[in-house]
Amino acid sequence: MHTLSKGGAGSGIRIWAGGLLLALAVGGALYAGAARTVNDDAEQRFDNLTYGAQHSLATRVKSYSDLLRGLEALFRTSEHLTRRQFHDYVAGLDIARQFPAIESVNYAVAVSPAQRAAYIDGVRRDTGLSPRGYPDFTIRPSGERPEYTVLTYLEPDSLLRERMGVDIGANPLVARALAQARDSGEVSASGQVIMIKGPPAHVGLGMRLPVYRNGMPQGSVAERRAAYQGSVGIGFGVAQLVHSALERSALEPLHLTLYSAADPLPASGVLRITRQDRLLFNDDGDLAAAPPQPGSDAAYFDRVLPVVYQGGQWKAHFRVRKEELYSGFDRYFPWLALAVGVAGTLLIYGYIYTLYRSRRSAVAQRTLLDTVLDSVDAYVYMKDADLRYRYVNARTATILGRSVEQVIGRRDGELMVGDAAAAAQRTERQVFDSGVKFVGEERFVDAQGQVHHLWSVKVPLGLPGPVTGLIGLSTDVTELHRLKEQADAASQAKSDFLSNMSHEIRTPMNSIIGMAHLALKSVADVRQRDYLQKIYHSGQHLLGLINDILDFSKIEAGKLELEVLDFRLDTLLANIASQLGDAAALKGLTLQFDIAPELPQRWRGDPLRLEQVLLNLTSNAIKFSDNASIFVRVRQSEERGSHTMLRFEVQDRGIGMNQEEVAQLFRSFHQADPSTTRKYGGSGLGLVISKQLAELMGGKVGVYSQPGLGSTFWFTARLEKCAQASDDGIAEVEPEVLGVIRGASILLVEDNVFSQQVGCELLEDAGATVCVAGNGREALELLSRQRYDCVLMDVQMPEMDGFEATRRIRADPRLAGLLVIAMTANAGSEDRARCLEAGMDEFVTKPIAPNLLFHLLAKWFRLRGGIGGAGHGPLGSLSAATAQGATPAAHGTPESRDRSILDLATLALTFSNDGVKMRKYTQLFLDTARDGIAEMEQAMALEDLGRLADLGHRSKSSALAVGAHAFAALCLSIEGLRLGGDMQQARALLTALAPALAQVAEQISLEFAASDAP
Predict the structure, then answer these.
(1) Is the omega angle on the peptide bond into residue 199 within 30 degrees of 0, that is, cis?
(2) Rounded to 5 degrees, what angle do the CA atoms 619, 657, 590 make?
(3) Dihedrals phi, psi of 837, to nearest 5 degrees
(4) pLDDT tens digits for 594-603?
(5) How confident is the model at residue 889 (pLDDT cuts 50, 70, 90)?
(6) Residue 19, Cα to own-chain centre: how many angstroms?
(7) What sign results for the dihedral spanned by CA atoms 897, 901, 905, 909?
(8) d(CA 881, CA 223)
(9) In what order do the strands lie in the sheet with 300-309?
């Protein structure tokens, strides 16, 4: 790992070094380009400056030639221009201000030898400016010449003494220039450069223009020579000319050297300074020193430009230091370009390098991810919105029987066989539509036909926006399925064994307990009664232990189902008091019950399991307490809609427990202290079963305890509020409710004879007319002949059940609006949904509480505008009948009652504690139950399990109605044979029915025998 890191660091240094070199190269190129740009800009400014200076010089020289033409024009105005006129004209030109470089303005007369004497005499006598004339005037230099050109008029006057009378033509160069001007009629520069000593010393030049006599032709050279009179001229200093022309230049750093061209200027090409060129002006003032030649210094811009004017040609050499033309920004611009180039290149290089590294890292990560996912013992894949594979790991490709490349881009339908593709697409389409991940089991058949069970997780991609794809991970759980099936089979075998053993043990145990109970009633000998009581109580203890083991087995196997029945809290606690009151009293304990005042009495849930948990906790409290009271409290923990969490507490002042002992509770076959088993007894299953039952009811269980101070065991259960408004189970039904029902025509569809008679009597007591049908087919026949206001429809019946009958009723247009209310002993949400789906209007559970049924009928009759076709008599009342015999539950000793076999509280609630009716219907139950057992034996002989299950369902309903819970449990087991059972199990259950019914009959005899006692 260290070697890899070191190599990576060295590679990174080399890469960044290369990037730095590239940045320097780019920065250097930008620096050179920027420097070139700055130099070009400065050179452009230099060109502009030099061409401007060139133009200024040419313009200034031209203005001087224009001045000469003005002088020439002055002479053409008069045949004889006087000295005074010449003087006045020049004075008007304001030479000093307008032409500061001009040092003299003159007029030279062409004099022939013949005219010389007359000319001299005329000048001497000229008094135009000087009153005494010019008596000393003569032509200089002296001597005879073929022609004279004598300076006659001169301005300013200070030049008269020095220059007046000078024959300028005596100089051959000047004479040649004069002749050229005379013959051409144009301005001509003097052929002689004059060094003026100054101060300061400088170079002077002259320009002359011929003057011709008025009225004479000038078309040819001969005519111009004949008409030639003289010439006007000016003399100027070159330095003053340059300064006056360039004094307003925008760039002062410009250096100028001016030469007089020795040779004619070339028509094109670069001008060069030759040795023959005469230096006219040097801006440093030193005409003796040799000025710099063009191109001699790279730090300067220089250029030689021509200055052409009439009569002469100059070469102007302009020079300026390059730095002096750079602006402040120009000086920094190349360096800025260098910095930007280096920095920008490094940034771009770094960005590209980062992208490169990121790409390489991504490729490496992808390779690593592929390696990991290919090594994972799972099928990993990703799909797009069209459900096409975008990624699969190696295991997925293998199970699909393709290579990875063959899978990518295809759908399941192109890769799978059978219904697996359609099932997968349905699941994945749900993930796309709902945006919720899928977790569940799937079934897949591979190319070899082998079935795989997969546990899959499919997660949507793109949330919180639209789902763009999904990632799936499926684990092969085929082996777990096989193990689960084996475990289920083992669990089923264990459950079957426990169930069979339980029933096999129960039968002799019930006989032992029953015979001991009967013997106790007839034996008076104290010693024998002690033996029998020990046998009786030991049998009860052993039976309770068997019940605990069976419940524990059912809970562990997940086969214990809760019922949803109407019950009352006070009745539930009264059962606790009746079953445990004597045991508490024997130890000097008092049971105190406390129900929160705000809690209603009526609830819906499983009262049997609630009672089982309370019995366990309360019996433990009695077992571990020696004095004081035991408190049983009921409070509301929380409320959500129609459901409420109730909290039950059992508090004692017993031995208590420490924290270590509390931690051992609620564990199978454990007690807080093993020594308590020897002292107090118990299997250690009670609390475990209580905990599991509480959790099945949506609650929890717990305990608070301190050694020597006692314990408080509590549990919670989620219960449903009862729909019936009244809290009093045997309260009178409101007269207005009975008034709505009175006169109604009701069809009761029930296959159980006992339930038929109970329903008929209840409804007839309420004033309704009742007709009974034994199954759905009979009900349809009756409905075809007669109109009814309501149908009370049992669900499970022979020939035609309630679901099919209701569907046919809804299919008949004449009966489609008929009120149909379902009656069933199954109270689950699925059963309710099934009833409503079949078309039933309402749903009630068995055993049916009369008040609830009456309120339900009244509600629906009101919604439908009352009953049809029946007159309403005076409002009747149904008061709680005074018991013609004493209430059975109010009599009898604790030893004679076994509520696990018979609990008449349900029947008492149905008939409002009417002892006569209760006796009647318990006997009716015994008769119908015996008939049912006979029919079951016939079905058993025919090995018809379906018929046997139907008869079990019918008998179960009757048993629950009278409170024969043990017998009802056996019937429920027989009913369960429909879902899977064998003849051996059916035979064992049927064998246990007759003894169970005998126990019920015995309990009925004991109950009503006690009520008949004086």
Answers:
(1) yes
(2) 35
(3) -65, -35
(4) 989 888 888 8
(5) very low
(6) 39
(7) negative
(8) 172
(9) 278-282, 255-260, 312-321, 300-309
